[in-house]
Specification:
Distance between the termini: 37 Å
CATH architecture of the largest domain: 2-Layer Sandwich
CATH topology of the largest domain: Zincin-like
Strand content: 15-25%
CATH superfamily of the largest domain: Metalloproteases ("zincins"), catalytic domain
Mean pLDDT: 88
Number of helices: 7
Helix content: 25-40%
């Protein structure tokens, strides 16, 4: 495979954009010193094709690899939910529920859940921004509560927690003992969000995916990790469909 790619890349230069079903999508390369092979994926929102490659690999090889998988990438892009900005009468996802968006300019600007509806007021022009800010504040409050619970279960002191808008990771744990959680998880069922927080808390103790890490995660998380992972794999991309 690599020899064939080297030969192909040597014959002609390759563009860093790829046409997927009529949509030009940029190719973004990221070199990792510990990578052993090329890894190809589409960003969760379909905005770019991402390739991680070993330090020794040539950029042309990676770009040729993406073009060789053009059909597969186009299929992945076609399956993605199309972005639809929230609008009055539409739907908003919140903690695994689908709420009908009710807008009244005279109502309070802060969203309020009433039955199966989410009511919000203020100018219609700023509707999406106000909704996103509210969802982010809810996401932070929920994730912070989750973190405190799981830190206590693991025998740890609480750590700082923040939100991320990353398009690749649902959560991260830095070597400075800080956790970051993707705010879009507030749209997912509680068990899914909590599994990500528990995962990152376990990394505060084991900064790897060793058997000890999985044993700790299994001890502090009350649900089925495999079920939460499966939900994200099947529905995670849909969490990017409503907000930019």
């Amino acid at each position: 495979m690599i020899d064939w790619l080297r030969g192909a890349s040597a014959r002609k230069p390759l563009d860093t954009k790829i046409d997927l079903g009529g949509t030009p999508v940029p190719i973004v390369l990221k070199r990792l010193h510990n990578a052993r092979r090329l890894t190809l994926r589409l960003a969760p929102d379909g905005s770019e094709v991402r390739i991680t490659l070993p330090a020794w690999a040539e950029g042309r090889e990676a770009i040729a690899f993406a073009h060789a998988r053009k059909g597969w990438l186009a299929e992945q892009l076609a399956r993605m939910p199309r972005r639809a900005a929230p609008a009055p009468g539409g739907e908003v996802r919140y903690r695994g529920r689908t709420l009908r968006l009710e807008w009244d300019a005279r109502a309070p600007r802060r969203p309020a859940i009433v039955g199966d509806s989410l009511r919000i007021g203020g100018p219609e022009s700023g509707l999406e921004t106000r909704l996103k800010r509210w969802l982010e504040s809810e996401a932070l409050a929920l994730a912070e509560a989750d973190m405190r619970e799981y830190c206590a279960a693991a025998g740890l002191d609480p750590v700082p927690i923040g939100l991320t808008r990353a398009q690749r990771r649902w959560g991260s744990c830095s070597d400075k003992s800080r956790i970051r959680i993707n705010w879009r998880l507030v749209q997912a069922p509680d068990s899914v969000r909590r599994s990500v927080v528990a995962h990152e808390v376990a990394h505060l103790v084991h900064f790897d995916h060793s058997s000890a890490f999985h044993a700790l995660l299994g001890r502090i998380f009350e649900g089925e990790i495999s079920a939460a992972d499966r939900w994200l794999k099947e529905h995670g991309r849909g969490l990017y469909a409503s907000f930019g």
